[in-house]
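[AMINO ACID CHAIN]
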Amino acid sequence: ISPQFVRPFVKSNKNDFVDAEAICEAASRPSMRFVQPRTETQQAMRALHRVRESLIKDKVKTTNQMHAFLLEFGISLPKGEAVIKRLSLVLAEHDVPDYMSRLLMKLHAHYLYLVEQITTLELELKQSIKADDAIQRMMTIPGVGPITASLLSSQLGDGKQFSCSRDFAASMGLVPRQYSTGGKPTLLGISKRGNKNLRRLLVQCARAFMMRLEHQHGRLAEWVKAQLSKKHSNVVACALANKLARIAWAITTRQNEYQA
């Protein structure tokens, strides 16, 4: 049970006995929401994704440091990784103190190490998902690649813990947040609850689908074109991410592939 749902049943002071009593009281509620424990495979997949995300953050931080140090010496480089890869040539063309050149080359070596580690993890991920039928079915969804499909599979499992597709989209924070009172419904922006990394990946998948919209066909593509004629592209991207999450739930529970 999520701790935020147990907290209202704690009577007074906090101790182990009161906490256990509150958990038993919360578990006896007929409308209580429960969390399904993950399998070892799901837990291992999520650990792989967390390590990959940590390495990517370190790589971006190292790249920004190199750009900032060069900018302090009046060397402005274009954004991107292509310039970082030829850092030694850039240092040879400009007059930079020796100690700063050595420091930048150490950062460059660390950057190459991080890139190698990320590439190794992605190769391991691709090898592990080849034998997973659920992930292969999810990759038939337009815009969804191996990274998003594997994280979706580790989050969904068999999908039976969600009664419908909207419940899964709500757990990802892709539905409107409500602030209704007095019989007047008030819907705000998306709630942004749940797994932030998975929600970001789903929105990126939606944007990838929208970028190649002229090459897409089917009911989903027609729906996106109709929405873009009326709403901002950011709103449509979040709405499409919601639909992709629902499609993933349907594919998982019904064990079939996506049909355009």
In short: The chain has a mean pLDDT of 88.
